[in-house]
Amino acid sequence: MCENWLKMNAEKHFVSWEQAVEWLRQQPDQAQLVRDCYYDNPLTASVERYWKSLEWQSIKPWLPESGGKALDVGAGRGIASYALAKQGFAVTSLEPDPSDTVGAGAIKGLASETGLPITVVENFSESLPFDDDSFDVVFARAVLHHSQDLEAACREFFRVLKPDGLFIAIREHVISVEEDLPRFLEIHPLHNLYGGEHAYLLERYLSAIEQSGLILKQVLLPWYSPVNYGPSNLPAMKNEIARRVGRGIAPVSRLIGFLLDLPGAWKIVRFLMTKIDNRPGRLYSFIAVKS
Fold it and tell me: What's the whole-number mean pLDDT along residues 145-155?
């Protein structure tokens, strides 16, 4: 999202997320952002694209092959609900927004059109209307940073998971210090339209997950997995690094690109990038189990 576009539209503030998305769709220069956020229509094409995305293909190996019952919290339009159902899960989509465009209404229409086993429940994460030990998987895509009470939400995720159940929280915004939050919100393109975005310190996420009783198995760092850097891909990221480091000087950029493709080079670069990367809102993902 370019800086000029943000300045032009910083004063726009919509009553609902649905209105914000509808307005965004009408901006010809923002078609790629709409597509990257899976807000494009038809919804069936959008969710199918997510299911086939590198992000989802990187998530699939964590999921139990036997399927089972999955809870998709903060389900939005249902892109992850669709993907989970295609993987053989009976899915409950938790989405408090009733919108036919970006919320529960959209998921209900998707379930009806596709015939997939998706049930919609309109509620919030902090107080789940489900029995203990109900789900094999709790999946949260870009949800934890929206929580009004992060610790309460994680306790609820633990409660409704079956023993040995899997908790997956992906694409969570992280800040390095609390003072970074206003700067992150200022540059976030969608927050400027409707609000509702947030970010926590990495330690806050880790503490909330572990204090809930969940056992943290893996933390995916920003530069290490397509789960975090999608919808971009590794070649595109290398090209962007080469362009920036080369300062637009083509021969220098080509040399850097060549070096980045050498065996083992990317492992070193991503390690170094993680050490120096303090961007407000960079993305982390978390995998935990209930034991």
Answer: 95
